[in-house]
Amino acid sequence: MAKDKKLVEEITSMDVDFAQWYTDVVKKAELMVYSSVKGCMIFKPAGYALWENIQHELDRRFKETGVENVYLPMFIPESLLQREKDHVEGFAPEVAWVTQGGLNDLQERLCVRPTSETLFCDFYKDEIHSYRDLPKVYNQWCSVVRWEKETRPFLRSREFLWQEGHTAHATAEEAEERTQQMLNLYADFCEEVLAMPVIRGRKTDKEKFAGAEATYTIEALMHDGKALQSGTSHNFGDGFAKAFGIQYTDKDNKLKYVHQTSWGMTTRLIGALIMVHGDDSGLVLPPAIAPVQVDVIPIMQHKEGVLDKANELTARLKAAGLRVKIDDTDKTPGWKFSEQEMRGIPVRVEMGPRDIEANQAVVVRRDNGEKITVSLDTIDNDIKDILAKMQVEMLERARAHREEHTYDAHNYDEFKSIVNSKPGFIRGMWCGDQACEDKIKEDTTATSRCMPFDQEPIGDTCVCCGKPAHKLVYWGKAY
Amino acid sequence: MAKDKKLVEEITSMDVDFAQWYTDVVKKAELMVYSSVKGCMIFKPAGYALWENIQHELDRRFKETGVENVYLPMFIPESLLQREKDHVEGFAPEVAWVTQGGLNDLQERLCVRPTSETLFCDFYKDEIHSYRDLPKVYNQWCSVVRWEKETRPFLRSREFLWQEGHTAHATAEEAEERTQQMLNLYADFCEEVLAMPVIRGRKTDKEKFAGAEATYTIEALMHDGKALQSGTSHNFGDGFAKAFGIQYTDKDNKLKYVHQTSWGMTTRLIGALIMVHGDDSGLVLPPAIAPVQVDVIPIMQHKEGVLDKANELTARLKAAGLRVKIDDTDKTPGWKFSEQEMRGIPVRVEMGPRDIEANQAVVVRRDNGEKITVSLDTIDNDIKDILAKMQVEMLERARAHREEHTYDAHNYDEFKSIVNSKPGFIRGMWCGDQACEDKIKEDTTATSRCMPFDQEPIGDTCVCCGKPAHKLVYWGKAY
Known about the structure:
2 copies of one chain form a homodimer.
Chain A: H1 2-5, H2 18-28, E1 32-34, E2 41-43, H3 45-64, E3 68-69, E4 75-77, H4 78-81, H5 85-91, E5 96-101, E6 104-112, H6 117-127, E7 136-145, E8 159-169, H7 172-192, E9 199-202, E10 214-221, E11 227-237, H8 239-244, E12 247-249, E13 255-257, E14 259-266, H9 268-277, E15 294-298, H10 306-319, E16 324-326, H11 333-343, E17 347-351, H12 353-357, E18 360-365, E19 371-375, H13 379-404, E20 406-408, H14 412-421, E21 425-430, H15 434-444, E22 447-452, E23 471-476
Parallel strand pairs in A: 3-7, 15-16, 15-17, 20-21
Antiparallel strand pairs in A: 1-2, 4-6, 5-6, 7-8, 8-14, 9-10, 9-22, 10-11, 11-14, 12-13, 17-18, 18-19, 21-23, 22-23
Helix pairs in contact in A: 3-7
């Protein structure tokens, strides 16, 4: 293997410099390039195909729960953005403003949407009149803009792609149910499709979304021990409804405010995939999300019959419903192996003259390098089994990594010691006072990631101030 | 039927006021509403679902021809837009400008993309080095902004959704081939899926895209006799390549410029669907594109067993691969019929106690009102046959309408008489002088729609100036 490695340009080892490893991988796996627009990136085919697969699977799951897709304008008039006080304070400092249209100055500035709560509210106030018009469970797939100063591919850029669901309900209970339903949908998607385990929990008031009553989050642990917020779901109560006047006549003939939610997932999931599963040879993609699942690589392809047999196998695997490509370029097999590894294609199939003679091929798993000799009689089903097993084992491996990097801290000395020496999640009790969150962040740069739904207290005093505490919190440094 | 009509709010008759009919239909069929952002519209679920189906089918056809999807930023720095002279002149007057990001003024204005040729060129110049890097056949699905003064739902709005393909090739021949291939793909899609016949042809120099050597177009005729440009494909030659310096080393080791194309289709196709197939009862959707193909409407649903049987039928039709909904609300059947008609659902199935007793149901076609009694034993296949027949007949009907509204003009008097009295396409020979196009447009508001690929001369003198002419042109008033 060492010999083959030299065939592709080297990437920095993740243990030497994780940030540089990440940058190398996104470029060498051809996921993206920077554009000449500062802070904005270009999704290349291999990167965009990941997003298409994420979209496809999420959208299918959304629709099963009754979500309908819509599309709202990308511009928000300044006066509309300002309607809800907390919301505008949260977003106004980081939006891009359109001030000229055609050859004229606009009478009112328009911001390019950083998120669309205000537009959906403005839309719903005219659409919702009676309890018969509820619930509204709408979603849109679009790009949004936030004028960030520091950017990183997929993780933080001035423009990114996402979906944003916005719902309106007759009752507070129904809104809360939808908020949690979507968070659980996100979590299941991450675990089942991205093979990425997540902690499900609630954000503290300090960390919640601008304008929300409650924000729920899923938090994943990257390979370097830093946390990544991977999806959020917000319950707005009737705050936006009151700010925008979204009322309906209920069955009892009384005028009531609706209760609203919103929830979103973004292209940063691609960054998560890279940082949870990748290794020093490049990307490692879970089979369920990989644009190409099988790379057929003929060995000694100049020998008579090899290419024919490889093409035949490719066609057969495609017909079996697998996503397959054949690499019949004139590169050496070693080079092809390294490219397949760099791109994270879950398995490669090596097949040369001797394999063909023996009616077999060698399947090599990307995640653990295991080589499995399979009969050509059963190879289609064998590969499906190998991919299914790999999908399960990738989730288990990521979960084991997270468990190994989750630490309990019972007092502030312990906390600081862990935060300085052991990258990962730190579980610690919290008194509920924002001053402790602020202090922890200032002292250590770690933030409260969430209060997990699964609350098993590990003590009864705050990890920061030592006062009585009832809430278990996951803390960590985060992207 | 007249009785039922009153149950839904009335729409203006298309013969009385076609523009008002159109506005009524897009609103009453709940395809869109205006937003509080001037010139921008909201796609409601029924409207967006049409776009999703168009996307799905076009994207599938694209990928069969080797297209790969990417995503480029929505912002274009002013200096980049200005790189190709004709292009900037065409677009600069109608773009929106971002001048502030966060709390600061930007050093350089960014326009919100009206189209992305310049960004793709800037991208390609760094991606393409060798003949091995060619061709590049990329596409993106996104929204674009053009600061129009007059807007109409789906047909013209400040922001619209589209796809834009951008390709780079080693030779002029290959670029020309791709330009025509995509135009034919568009035309086949319109005819096979939207049941909308189109004229395939080339734009005159006056009407071609800003910066293109040649623009090919498909032109459809709406019910009111006005033309709608429904898709375009442009061959840029090496003009952009020279402006942006996109060169590759060929097999002969010489440095050469690439040849480029771009091609796009937009959400105005939804407007086309409405205006080609709609009638005074509302939308009429071709089965191949309809989000819901079958509306099951139980009759006397309070009678025992009716709802059960209707639900059973719905499940069975879904299992057969049809897109089905059941209307089990407490509205009257007549009201439900009118709603199904307004929304253009291709067929409804009426089933009441007597039908059930006779082991049958009544299938009613939306396009011609035909009522077909079918046995419950074979109803799934029967409905598939009915939908397939309807799809074919809708195309035939639209083609017959176009033929009836296509006129030949041999001189300017004939031309003016037709243009004033007979809405439709006018076929007329053209000398090739732009002065004649300008005169015709000024005198009549008709424009040259295209020089059809199928060139059968109908004379040898220009329909405007009477000088020798060799080119057949389709003329018409257009949206």
